[in-house]
Amino acid sequence: MRFSLKTLLWGILLIAGVMVVVLTMRPRPVDVEWATATIGPLKVTVQEDGKTRIRERYTVSAPVSGRVSRIELNPGDRCTESTLLAVILPSDPAILDARAKAEALARVQAARAARERARSAVEQAEIRYELNVAQFERAEKLVETKAISRDEFEIAKTERLASAQAIETATFDAEIASFELEMAEAAVSQFADTKASPSVDPFEIYSPISGRVLRVIQESSAVVAVGTPLIELGDPQNLEIEVDVLSTDAVRIRPGAELTVQHWGGQRPLSGYVRVIEPQAFTKVSSLGVEEQRVNVIADFNEPPERLETLGDSYRVEASITVEQLERALLIPNSALFRHQRRWHVLAIEAGRAVLRPLKVGLRSESHTEVLKGIVPGERVIIYPDETLRPGTAVRPVSRSSGATG
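Given the sequence above, the corresponding structure tokens read:
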């Protein structure tokens, strides 16, 4: 059988036509974004809005009844223990009865008992601090030899910091108790001898602490009764953080947990640690109108005072509280996961095709998930899979996700 040149050309054209038809009918690969399953650290956090608040604030009240002069101080003014806050012209002692005198004497006794109780609290705080310092020093040596875990060391460190703060709080309470005793004794002196002189000396009130004026409660001159709040004082640099979290998240948070403050207005995040989780929850209505049970978490800053100079009382912050942390875990982005038949799955890339893989997952952070079973390190998974992808679909990786770090 002879093959002419014309027959050969027709044969070539026929084969080319068949190939074009086959290539046309063959589905085109779908462009997909992908990420690699990698080994890395994973940090699981609870993120909520919170606010700063001054740890110790003091409300100065009128120790005697009478006419208070106009308070010239304004919010933000600095004050020391020699700053005159207010002047009260007491009522005429001649019209004060025995009951008022008895009440003043009772206030002296109560103030004296409060002072002794505050002094005892200072001694207890100092004893607790010495114990926690010894435990921390012992934990510091043991953690170097890996005789204790890192978590136990962090707990010992937190207890030492918290006990140091407890001394400051107890000392502040003792100073306030001494001030209140002085005010109560000065009030009683108004009853000492009401017949000696018909005049009544003005009663001067000085600041019990060094700090700033937070709020002037009674600014104008007026007649006030005993115990009427006049002015509120505090130290804006002595701040703590109050974060209300869902009660389901609160059970996962432990004292000493690491806390990071984001979006507070500064260039760098602030660090801190959880001091206490309040034992009682409260009901709060969310922006969607849903009632939620929430718990206040109180944390302390772990920053030098100069970094907190621009913060004040009740400033909004965004807090991120660490609840779980792994040094090494197999991680994939959360965007690669989807539910199928009540299990978590991913679409892996094998030989240019999408392959359905069931997974067993562990901890999850805001961006990544720990994989316990189903894939191995280095495998590629499709992120943001859409409904057009099916197992066996030809895919073409075109854009790689950033590294998998939890």
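The mean pLDDT is 82. Try to locate this feature in the token string yourself.
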